[in-house]
Amino acid sequence: MYGLQYDCRCGQPGSEKRGRLMAEKITAYRFDQLDQTLSQLNKENCAIIAGGTDVMVMYKSRRGVPPKIPKPIVFIDHLSELKRVYQKHKDLYIGACSTYSELLENPLIPGPLKKAIKTIAAPAIRNRGTLGGNVCNASPAGDTLPLLYVYNAKLLLRSVNGERIVAISDFIQGVRRIQRERNEIVAEIILPSVMEEGAHVVFEKVGNRNADAIAKVGFAGYIRLNGAVIEDARFAFGAVGPTMVRSVDIEKGLFGKTIPLADTDIAQVVGAFDKIIKPIDDQRSTAIYRKTVALNLLRYFLSMNQYQHNQ
Ligand SMILES: Cc1cc2nc3c(=O)[nH]c(=O)nc-3n(C[C@H](O)[C@H](O)[C@H](O)COP(=O)(O)OP(=O)(O)OC[C@H]3O[C@@H](n4cnc5c(N)ncnc54)[C@H](O)[C@@H]3O)c2cc1C
């Protein structure tokens, strides 16, 4: 198990299995059923591990030293209840533990989301990393997040107390800060009405290279037209603030306008985002570069006069 010392308590009552590989040990649970997993989370404060691609980096130690995870860990990536992808009416339900590679193979997944997934890391990480992990890690540079915001994604959380549904924009509260109770698991990501025809959705990521690069800027644009009239428009920017930058007020200003948009309308929307996008300088990019690129991507999206249907 990742070369860690461990004391593995498998979920079957009476079938506790222990293996000690080194002096220090951690406790790891891998239950067969979601219900058993939820009971354990209710009893004990555990670190959830789905694909582990963020967790293992978060707790990494110096070279040659196993990661130090300060709590018992509970594996959830194998739970079939968390891996289903299905359509209900016009909504799409994606199991939080679906890996990126699985989603790329699934015909229900919208093209723009597949495009975003293809920009994430390399195949080895995509074979482990999950959509739920990207959401719960709540990185400003999480590549699926701009799209999940413009899809108005909701999260279905489960615990021993039942279920609740929360909008992604409420769930993610800051850098690596989420509104999850200790005993809850994100079970499904819901994309409301995404199976409805008629929305045009664009995803763009700017990084150092096309693959295996963390975003300097991420952008998702969503537009729904009735003929040439804009019925709905949504924009979300990643890696330019502590969470995704989205403004429903600015978006509403476009409702009822016709495409192609007048230059003054485009300038107004770009100017409004100019005021609220406040990136920082860091090891990946500079604030000025990030802002310039973010606004250019928005301008490019608004200037399109032929949008492609892509769910
Ligand atoms: C080399 C490398 C390259 C990467 N490149 C990219 C990239 O290009 N773009 C990008 O966006 N990310 C990238 N990542 C980050 C990572 O792969 C993704 O964020 C991935 O989606 C995390 O999923 P996971 O299942 O591995 O999460 P984990 O590491 O298992 O978990 C991440 C966090 O979410 C919590 N969690 C996970 N699932 C649930 C759940 N269902 N319910 C409640 N809590 C949960 C965990 O407790 C933990 O806090 C990269 C990582 C590595 C190591």
Highest CATH level, the class of the largest domain: Alpha Beta
Named CATH topology of the largest domain: Uridine Diphospho-n-acetylenolpyruvylglucosamine Reductase, domain 3
User: Which parts are unreliable, with pLDDT below 50 for 5 consecutive residues or more?
Assistant: 1-21
Count of β-strands: 14
Helix amount, in percent? 25-40%
Report how far apart the termini are.
Answer: 40 Å
Bound molecules: flavin-adenine dinucleotide
Kindly give the count of domains: 3
Question: What can you tell me about this protein's structure?
Answer:
The protein has 311 residues and is α+β, with helices and mostly antiparallel strands. The protein folds into three domains: 6-75, no CATH class; 80-191, Uridine Diphospho-n-acetylenolpyruvylglucosamine Reductase, domain 3 (2-Layer Sandwich), CATH 3.30.465.10; 199-303, CO dehydrogenase flavoprotein, C-terminal domain (Enolase-like, domain 1, 2-Layer Sandwich), CATH 3.30.390. It has helices spanning 34-43, 55-58, 100-105, 111-118, 123-126, 131-137, 145-150, 168-171, 248-252, 263-276, 287-303, and strands at residues 6-10, 26-30, 47-49, 73-75, 85-88, 91-95, 154-159, 162-167, 172-174, 177-178, 185-191, 199-206, 217-226, 229-238. It has a five-stranded antiparallel beta sheet. Strand 5 and strand 6 form a beta hairpin. The longest helix is centred in the C-terminal third of the chain and has 17 residues, at 287-303. The structure holds flavin-adenine dinucleotide. The site of flavin-adenine dinucleotide (FAD) has 29 residues, from strand 3, helix 2, helix 6 and strand 11.
